[in-house]
Amino acid sequence: MKKIGIVGATGYTGVELLRILATHPDIEITYVTSRSNVGMRVDDMFPNLRGFIDLEFSDPDTDALAKCDLVFFATPNGVAMQHVPALLKAGTKVIDLAADFRIKDVELWSEWYNMKHACPDLLAEAVYGLPELNRSAIKSANLVANPGCYPTSVILGLLPLVKSSTIDLKNIIADTKSGVSGAGKGANVATLFSEMGESFKAYNVAGHRHQPEIAQTLSVLADTHVDLTFVPHLLPIIRGIHATLYAKPIQNAKPVKNAKQTEKQDWQALFEETYKDEPFVDVLPAGSHPETRSVKSSNMCRIAIHEVSQNSQLVILSVIDNLVKGAAGQAVQNMNLMLHLEETTALNQPALLP
Amino acid sequence: MKKIGIVGATGYTGVELLRILATHPDIEITYVTSRSNVGMRVDDMFPNLRGFIDLEFSDPDTDALAKCDLVFFATPNGVAMQHVPALLKAGTKVIDLAADFRIKDVELWSEWYNMKHACPDLLAEAVYGLPELNRSAIKSANLVANPGCYPTSVILGLLPLVKSSTIDLKNIIADTKSGVSGAGKGANVATLFSEMGESFKAYNVAGHRHQPEIAQTLSVLADTHVDLTFVPHLLPIIRGIHATLYAKPIQNAKPVKNAKQTEKQDWQALFEETYKDEPFVDVLPAGSHPETRSVKSSNMCRIAIHEVSQNSQLVILSVIDNLVKGAAGQAVQNMNLMLHLEETTALNQPALLP
Amino acid sequence: MKKIGIVGATGYTGVELLRILATHPDIEITYVTSRSNVGMRVDDMFPNLRGFIDLEFSDPDTDALAKCDLVFFATPNGVAMQHVPALLKAGTKVIDLAADFRIKDVELWSEWYNMKHACPDLLAEAVYGLPELNRSAIKSANLVANPGCYPTSVILGLLPLVKSSTIDLKNIIADTKSGVSGAGKGANVATLFSEMGESFKAYNVAGHRHQPEIAQTLSVLADTHVDLTFVPHLLPIIRGIHATLYAKPIQNAKPVKNAKQTEKQDWQALFEETYKDEPFVDVLPAGSHPETRSVKSSNMCRIAIHEVSQNSQLVILSVIDNLVKGAAGQAVQNMNLMLHLEETTALNQPALLP
Amino acid sequence: MKKIGIVGATGYTGVELLRILATHPDIEITYVTSRSNVGMRVDDMFPNLRGFIDLEFSDPDTDALAKCDLVFFATPNGVAMQHVPALLKAGTKVIDLAADFRIKDVELWSEWYNMKHACPDLLAEAVYGLPELNRSAIKSANLVANPGCYPTSVILGLLPLVKSSTIDLKNIIADTKSGVSGAGKGANVATLFSEMGESFKAYNVAGHRHQPEIAQTLSVLADTHVDLTFVPHLLPIIRGIHATLYAKPIQNAKPVKNAKQTEKQDWQALFEETYKDEPFVDVLPAGSHPETRSVKSSNMCRIAIHEVSQNSQLVILSVIDNLVKGAAGQAVQNMNLMLHLEETTALNQPALLP
């Protein structure tokens, strides 16, 4: 049984980690921290865990955490980087669910996150924890930067196209919509029920932190600079992200996939082929419209690809549960890889529908 | 591996049965029926089941069903009773999630359900499938009537009081609130999103079919006629029932439970004692207010008991997920008992929160 | 044109006052205060008011407020009582939408509101602003205590019964459900979208501040002490209160209303008669189930009365929009009365449905 | 007092027309039809109208309708065209809220609406009822085709750009999101509360009837063929449309508007100038993100324009209430123009927020 610690377990990502790990047969949660709730029983805060988690919140003590095999940081940005060097030195593996190790360019990071990085030398070592992209690197990593929720949905939706060099990299639009839990559990007027209910809006059109994260990942994949227009919106649902992605096929590109042996690109086949061995990416039948509820509570990403208007526009629809594949579920998938456990353990459940 | 059939698997109860059974290690779903969707893949209708259920809907054929060890009927009222006699004769056990076998008095049943019963002689044999009440009978039953959703929440909330003869049986009020999925998946203007959203109402104040079901069960428990006022309401949520139960303590009754050795009844201790060995009833600490979301997707019933206004009024709060403990989860619990499997198999998961 | 001031206009009650008053032909809003937003345009905070309210938030200055004919306090409890003596002295009428002047017994008030009252001598002078009860007193009042939202729905639902002495005053239960906007616009984890959505719960079962307010009002009406069990719940909707009220008819009481000349009480006729001249109480046809959405955005209270279980139980269903008849709308109704304007001005609009 | 008839008043558009017209001082609703509810009181179906509409549903009789000055058709596609010729002949003006007269090309219309047009000769005469585009034509029209909900939000968001020839007409994307009431009040599994709640999805990516309507209108405006990619989504809210529009500025185009006298286009000034005299289009301050709730229940369209990524991408955000500016409100605006009443009568109300 591997010993697992969770730092900052009182937010939505934290409770979701606890929910998923509660039934994981190969690990044991030994240490759960919350600076402001020391001594409180975890299941007093989260009654859904009654009977599953018999622990109290502790102070985030590095020595205690260092006794774990792996520690998750489900903390605000800027916290993990304070503890990671000591933990790595002690031989404890780390998965940061915040953004401290997602951006390789430390100046770009500082610009978007408004702080100085505490351990820039670790940025190169950190592996971006998207298994569909970096599985083998994750398996041998000591430090994994768990991807953002929007980036997970957008990158998985674009990956087959960028990798196959079949779309115009200067003309990508990601119109994304997220459930409110993505905004966290902080006391905040803007995310009150009476503010978010029965309404919908875009936000941060001028710039969102997940844009450089997506651009960096796609650029590595394309081996050239990829920019994209990224517009996030807030949905009046608790869980779920829906990315609607617009891309232009490169004219006269040689078809990568073409099941019917014609000159036309077979986008459906390209996507199916790309993901055929992935346990948590599901390419839907041609013509489908994935619903966010089809992945609620599950680690699955479901994708549909449409070509509209006589080949001039690709529309990709990609849905995830922002707290699962967009956060805690993907983190557990990474943990399984890092600890050389079966990758799907504790994650292989049908979504809750309705 | 036990062979399991599901008749009428296209409604909310049906898909929930499939979701729960999908990961059950001791059974195999071999036959799933839907008269109007014969030949359609189950996961084409329910994309959350992609990768879990590799079956097509079949016609409800009695011979095919008779090859199963156990068959669930997740059908409208009046369907199960047409098939049950043949299945029982063939040695196949049956759990009816509808109301055909819940009411022992066939005339009362006909009055509330507006039809003639097809096999009244089986009513006596059918066991009311509330494990907290009838566990040993369920274990040896061939035919189980799975309780209604409201009755499950109400009976579990009142059972310790009725059993201990500590409340006035002529003065019980059940003010109950249910999520919309309880109304089923039929095309119906009244349950459209735009009708149910951002609103709340009572319905059937003059009489609801679950009232006689509750009254019958409590009367057996009390060994005298129990009536109660039952008022259902529709909540703008998908899953969840909250029962707010009002009862008057009998004055001068001898305390059944009294942890502090005084003359006063210790209601909290009474509830905790009653349910101390139950895997799916959780008595919350004194002063609690259970939320429906604390049981969403789970088979748990959470209960809190309050005494207000100087001993003159008990208020019991009882929450379940109407599709799980109120339907499919309880049915699987009953199946486990009937097939002599571990009672909690496939049901032992934390609720989804938030 | 009467000059109107609003103190504390940044909460939900404040913006609702502004919305309703924006089209009132006989008044002019001259002064709107918010201590923490001085200098900000009102319509920068509330874009729905763009083109309707051309004002900035000011500091709550007593001299400036005293230039108004009438001032609304849409402030937290304990604020109005600091300003009211000076305003009354200056000849400015006041409507407090908070609780400072609702409870006549100053000790009881202090017990429930945890503070010392700043002007207990004004409690006797303050009129409880329920027009259906105190219309003539309101017309000549200088200080009106606008009723709480729950009390408005509960008192209007019970008034015909209490006034006619036809129910057992020791056996009243008010099971009430409120939309989340009733909890206000403060930054609060408990009322976040992700906490309130897709869930339902009771709260404050042990005691809620509106219980003594209701009990006081009913006691005056009955001319004897009335207690009641009051259990509030939180609904996942923004606006709306639904009160489900349970009362026991007094056996052998002489029928007050009996359209059919029999010995049986005609409850429907009693309610219709009581409210026949009220512009904002609508008694629905017998057998109805009012929906909260049928009063959304409107100042109407809709009521239905049911008698169930062979005369032994009355169930009254009463719905209001908590921000309108439960707060700002009723306050404007009171203002109209106090300023001798037509009572229904600016309030006579159909509810928004769906 | 002008006499007004409404054909098909039982859907959401119908009840919204009744709500708005209920307080209109210059008209009188004299005839309201519903084939399947003849004889039923209108306020029995819509309790929000109790006290406002004292009418019963009648059969849609042409002679009776011809006594009206103006008739609204709030009917399914294909109904209005059966009655319009007779009504026009009788001198009764008509506004069709469905799509019978929106598309000028009768073959294109038949292709999208799957029926033969009953009076193709009237298509040329019908005026597309977007007052911001066709005000003077509407004033003298006898037959107005009320625009679709999506088209209203999209066209108003693009009009200043298309009119000024400043964007690439081959590269427009409209990512649109609508509340569920847009799908109507028919009994339909797909729009049940339990299907739509807590979820989000795109639909009709391959093609939606509103695409040709938008393309036709923009093409007339641009005097050249405009195509656009149109992707609709369903939001779990009742009312509201949010259009997120993506357009590419033409490089080196001469700035139309440039408040700061530089070479750069001033998009904000362009939008403000275009709509400065419009009563129902509100250009928000630069940097804004309009929320759908800021127009709930109101006839306003609120728009914000953003330029992102170094001039290479314009993002326009446009919100309306689909039942008001997207249907019944715009229809009343058209009625006011056609009957030479004040354009804003009965429509000049702040939105309901929260």
Overview of the structural elements:
- 4 copies of one chain form a homotetramer.
- Chain A has 354 residues and is of the alpha/beta class.
- Chain A has 2 domains: 2-125, Rossmann fold; 150-322, 2-Layer Sandwich (Dihydrodipicolinate Reductase, domain 2), CATH 3.30.360.10.
- Chain A has helices spanning 12-21, 42-45, 62-66, 80-89, 106-113, 131-139, 149-163, 193-196, 210-222, 267-274, 324-338; strands at 2-7, 27-33, 70-73, 93-96, 127-128, 143-145, 173-179, 201-202, 229-235, 241-247, 281-283, 301-308, 313-320.
- Chain A has a 7-stranded mixed β-sheet with strand order 8-9-7-10-13-12-11. A 6-stranded parallel β-sheet of chain A has the order 2-1-3-4-6-5, sandwiched between helices.
- In chain A, α6 (131-139) links the parallel β5 and β6.
- In chain A, α1 crosses α11, α6 runs parallel beside α11 (324-338) and α7 runs parallel beside α9.
- The first copy, chain A, is globular and about 65 Å long.
- The relative contact order of chain A is 0.14.
- The mean pLDDT of chain A is 96.
- Chain A binds chain D through residues 173, 175, 177, 194-195, 197-203, 205-207, 227, 229, 231, 233, 235-240, 242, 244, 246, 287, 289-293, 296, 306, 308-309, 313, 315, 317, 319, 354, and chain D through 173, 175, 177, 194-195, 197-203, 205-207, 227, 229, 231, 233, 235-240, 242, 244, 246, 287, 289-293, 296, 306, 308-309, 313, 315, 317, 319, 354.
